[in-house]
Amino acid sequence: MSRRWIQNPNRCTDEYLDGIEDFIEFACRHNPSATRIRCRRCNNTLWETIENVGCHLVRNGMIETYNIQNLHGEQLDNASSSNATMVDNVEPIVDPNEQVIDIINEAFPFASTNINQEREDDVPTLMDSAEFEQYEQLLKNANQELYSGCESFFILMAIVELMHRKIKYRMSNLCFDYFSGVFKRMLPTDNCLPKDHRHTQKLLNGLGLGYEKIHVCKNNCMLFYKEYETLDTYPICKKSRFKTTSQNRTTKIPKKVMRYLPLKPRLHRLYMSTHTATDMRWRKEKRVDDDVMRHPVDGEAWKEFDLTFSEFAVDP
């Protein structure tokens, strides 16, 4: 099977698409009963459906070092076995808990400076005390065992794993609460697993990227924001901001709430993380400009923006 298609920078050519089809057919032929195969774009660590593997290879390309496809059924000969070993070892296995600690350090890039900094009056601290307490608490959870003697999971690692599955499989908060309670009862009594979704979120709040709740007119005519934040009725439609509740209730319930996700801290985080910063710069550093529309950067609107704000566009 020819490998020349892997080097083709244009992933829309017949040669490239036929190469993907031959690769998937080859992998399925060596495992005929399987509905999923290893995705080479995902470092051969994830099993994906055949359709997803094809989409990943078209969108992101095949990793060029995978010339000997031994994990998809190709037999190794003596001459090539040493080369195959070298290819397979290009991407080392990373400890999941190390990845969680990396996330914490990327969320608090100045924390190590604070730890090593002399507490002198004329040297300003890069983090305030509240932020530093959040950092220390997250680091403590990242290094504390889920229960006494547990070697496979730490508190923060377990929470991140559970929340990732919640999002991936679109689990409701109520369903998450149920399974959290079941898992907590299954574990030893000294376990530190949060009992429900609300307590899980509280432990993750230190990582930032939360959202703001802004009260909204039930008719969508305005937001209770900035100069309107203290009003109880809408100046446009004169409707009440809060629901009618019993007089004994101390807290007021808004009729409608908008959840606002601030863009700026999310962009900061994407560029701070070593895992995502490369992807954020792809449009400038690795994109193939061949007049094929495969990303918003190839569109006229993006190009017009770059021309209008040329100084901004220079920095990837």
Summarize the structure.
This protein is mainly alpha-helical and 316 residues long. The protein has helices at 14-29, 50-60, 78-88, 96-107, 111-116, 129-143, 155-168, 173-186, 197-204, 263-272, 274-280, 282-285, 300-308, 310-314, and strands at 36-38, 47-49, 212-215, 257-260. A two-stranded antiparallel ribbon has the order 1-2. Strands 3-4 form a two-stranded antiparallel sheet.
What do these coordinates show?
The protein is mainly alpha-helical. It has 14 helices and four strands. It has a two-stranded antiparallel sheet. Strand 1 (36-38) and strand 2 form a beta hairpin. Helix 1 (14-29) runs antiparallel to helix 2 and helix 4 packs antiparallel against helix 6. The two termini are 38 Å apart. Residues 78-93 and 118-125 have low confidence and may be disordered. Residues 3-74 form the Transposase-associated domain. It holds the Pfam family Transpos_assoc. This is Transposase-associated domain-containing protein.
- Overall average pLDDT: 77
Structural class: mainly alpha
Question: Main beta sheet, described?
Answer: 2 strands, antiparallel
Strand order of the largest sheet: 1-2
How far from one another are the termini? Answer: 38 Å
Question: What is the overall silhouette?
Answer: extended
The beta-strand count equals: 4
Radius of gyration (CA) equals 26 Å
Structure annotation, total helices: 14
Residues in helices, as a percent range: 40-55%
Order of H and E elements: HEEHHHHHHHHEEHHHHH
Low-pLDDT parts are 78-93, 118-125
Strand percentage lies at under 5%
